[in-house]
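Person: Please comment on this record:
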Amino acid sequence: ISVCFLFCSRYCTSITNFLVMGGFQLLAKPAIDFLNKNQELLQDLSEVDEENTQLMEILNTLFFLPIRRLHSYAKVLLKLATCFEVTSPEYQKLQDSSSCYESLALHLGRKRKEAEYTLSFWKTFPGKMTDSLRKPERRLLCESSNRALSLQHAGRFSVNWFILFNDALVHAQTKWLRAISQAVDQALRGMSDLPPYGSGSSIQRQEPPISRSAKYTFYKDPRLKDATYDGRWLSGKPHGRGVLKWPDGKMYSGMFRNGLEDGYGEYRIPNKALNKEDHYVGHWKEGKMCGQGVYSYASGEVFEGCFQDNMRHGHGLLRSGKLTSSSPSMFIGQWVMDKKAGYGVFDDITRGEKYMGLWQDDVCQGNGVVVTQFGLYYEGNFHLNKMMGNGVLLSEDDTIYEGEFSDDWTLSGKGTLTMPNGDYIEGYFSGEWGSGIKITGTYFKPSLYESDKDRPKVLKLGNLAVPADEKWKAVFDECWHQLGCENPGQGEVWKAWDNIAVALTTNRRQHRDSPEILSRSQTQTLESLEFIPQHVGAFSVEKYDDIKKYLIKACDTPLHPLGRLVETLVAVYRMTYVGVGANRRLLQEAVKEIKSYLKRIFQLVRFLFPELPEEGSTIPLSAPLPTERKSFCTGKSDSRSESPEPGYVVTGSGLLLPVLLPRLYPPLFMLYALDNDREEDVYWECVLRLNKQTDLALLGFLGVQRKFWPVTLSVLGENKKVLPTTKDACFASAVECLQQISTTFTPSDKLKVIQQTFEEISQSVLASLQEDFLWSMDDLFPVFLYVVLRARIRNLGSEVHLIEDLMDPYLQHGEQGIMFTTLKACYYQIQREKLN
């Protein structure tokens, strides 16, 4: 990376020097004949989309393209980092490398802006005097033609023009050139030709400046005593950007307001005991850390999250130690007055345990769940960081204990121990799990009983865990506060939209000096999000689609409150269910959490769009749908009524799952795969065994009627006869279609793939029969079973269960619901198929 940085810096220096001297304009003239013939190719290489762009601008863009692509490199590294766990060294290295590339891109972008500003100056003021000053490495900092600057005691008719370069100050009236390199060297060494304040026989302290930029050492203010401030002033107080340094080494650099740190700033505090420093970067309000920020402690801990009155308050992530340290851990959750409180997730990397539950005064207190790297699962009550009270403990081999605990993994009191085979013991238990347990009780063997009333009830997990709606309340509360609501749903809509516009405009202004951070399309997206959508008249499908498009753009933009909310929810979800959290017993908790996200985000959306109907409402169609459609049953036109398409019934999942689920899909699908691992192994073994047969043999084995067997196949436009040795050729289009189910994310998209597969089957049979027909389930099921087998979908069980858990309820009884039930039946049928 260091070699790349050095190369990019040298390359940027050469190109910007070339730009300042008008090199691209000179280069374009002799090359115009040759390059104009290849201007389309040149535009493609330079990624210039606008027509009639001048050749000089195309060359300029082309030569700066390697620097612009540094942002892309940073994004690629960031995406690669998501392939690793957040606690892994690979993740940290990729994150650091991405930040380095991003910083380099910003630095070189500013260099380019300085060069363009200087070139514009040379073009605006041509002449012998300016030509004599023009040097490749010289950059214009400021000039007085557009700044209010005048010479004191100047004559009435004199015209004074001051030009400040990075290496010289020019007074144009006298054509006086004064090199200031010596003054710069003195400043860097801390020397000055001017006598210091207070020198002489008597000490005369100056008063703080009234305005402008100046340097001043405080001697009255107890908070700032002996501190030196260098920056902008207003009415005798620091106001604007500046740097404040204390004699003990503390330093603040950032924005001030009425003499106090206010806005975005950086704060450093030396720690002499550790020979390091505390470092804070983030927002301030009235002299205190307030808002979002990152605090890096000298001890090695790093906190990213919300602050209030110099304390951690709100949602935040605390990293303690590194993977190589003695006690690495991570906590993400709610903080109150510098202490963990409310719901949070603690990942103890040393012990290989993850706690997901309630906190109070920095300790685990209340209901919670613990999973370990050895497959243990506990849910129940905690008191002062200990498992205490009622709880449920499950081991990897499905042994279950329900009862009382007195300490971590320590059974103490009345309970029930259930074996993997269903036998169970009721009685009193004492001892630590895995180290020998003393039992006084009764042993039961349910298989000996004839009636089911004596059998133990099936255990349902989650009753002692924190309810999904109680999780991450601080994250949602913060979003509501950004919209101007003290409590969820209590506020004025117009004020919320004003707050959104202000937040977006403020963030865009912060990026104004770094145009490469936001591309033109991103800037246009932010501008469109500042516009408040207006809906007049009855609510329609078109207005619903407009809201959906707005939400997609808003949730893809972290600068928008909804986008920031989604980004935070994705982070906490991955933190919870990745690594040790990838435990199959957490699947239902993970599904409940997604449903809770959808419900609470939908509440936010309905607040912003009051005209949006409530959950389950049907949107009236502005125009009737076409009465004829292709039926999957006959392949011919069919005028029968169809269940509503997704989007015509208002649901939180239909509106928000396309935005949320692709981001949460990897950890969620991993849980499904772990939970269905055993039955999917049986299914996959049957798939591999049955797929050894040829097409005709498999069709016959599955009981497909001969009239549905393809006789000929079209291969590269030629019709070829289906032979007894033909394999993987029949119903190939339907097989390829069904395989796409693994490339989709949302249940609605997966259901559309299933529906398209049925239609492909019908089209293939229609082409073979050359006549109308009507499917019966007895005829259709074996054909579809053949397609499912040939599709060879490795985690079909996980796909089926994901659709079942997250699909919209109103789809279950429609055509797509019937098709999904057929796919589910095929999955279970395959596990029972036996070859003769």
